[in-house]
Design goal:
The chain is mainly beta and about 180 residues long. It has one domain (about 25-170): Jelly Rolls. The protein has helices spanning about 5-10, 135-140, 160-170; strands spanning about 30-35, 35-45, 50-60, 70, 75-80, 85-90, 95-100, 105-110, 115-120, 125-130, 140-145, 170.
Length: about 180
């Protein structure tokens, strides 16, 4: 083990902030509460030279998140446990819908409107996104040391959510419902 590795989160379980090898025990990473979900960033743009971010989302059954787009962000859904329904509007305007269960995979190319709804309690999703977007959840919600779901849910003000959306290129499309 190199001294650089030891400083890269080997004992304090923080992300190193630059491209260094590191390990995180289960549940560790940069945690944030947003609405009823716990998002844990495992790898950020800082460790991948801006290439991609990796996070987990843990959430109970709930309502669909508002339809949104991000012009420069590709997004992957890989369901680890539970179920999530994903809606995407493709480039031709056709609505695609899929219920994803454990081991199922979904991909949303940059710029396409999409939404999802967690459909089973104790759902866990592994997300991969274009580098930088993984920090949207902490900016929109609140950082936490908790490993549990927020009780009560953390509901940001509309202004705070809109500001985080602008910062991370997340455009909410309240004019477009894909989940109905």
């Amino acid at each position: 083990m190199t001294a650089e590795f030891a400083k890269a989160g080997a004992e304090d379980f923080t992300l190193p902030g630059r491209p260094l090898p590191f390990f995180l025990p289960a549940g560790e990473g940069e945690r944030a509460h947003l609405f009823d979900s716990l998002v844990t960033v495992l790898l950020s743009k800082d460790e991948t030279e801006g290439q991609f971010g990796v996070f987990t989302l843990a959430a109970p059954r709930g309502e669909a998140i508002p339809t949104h787009t991000h012009a420069d962000v590709h997004e992957i859904f890989f369901v680890l446990g539970g179920r999530a329904r994903v809606w995407i509007q493709d480039a031709e305007g056709e609505r695609l819908e899929r219920l994803l269960g454990p081991g199922d995979f979904g991909y949303v190319p940059a710029g396409l409107p999409h939404s999802f709804r967690v459909e089973a309690d104790d759902t866990r999703i592994l997300g991969v996104c274009t580098g930088g977007f993984e920090r949207f959840f902490a900016a929109a919600g609140t950082r936490t040391d908790s490993r549990g779901l927020p009780r009560p849910p953390h509901v940001p003000s509309a202004e705070h959510l809109a500001a985080a959306g602008r910062e991370f290129g997340n455009e909410f499309r309240f004019d477009l419902r894909l989940d109905g």
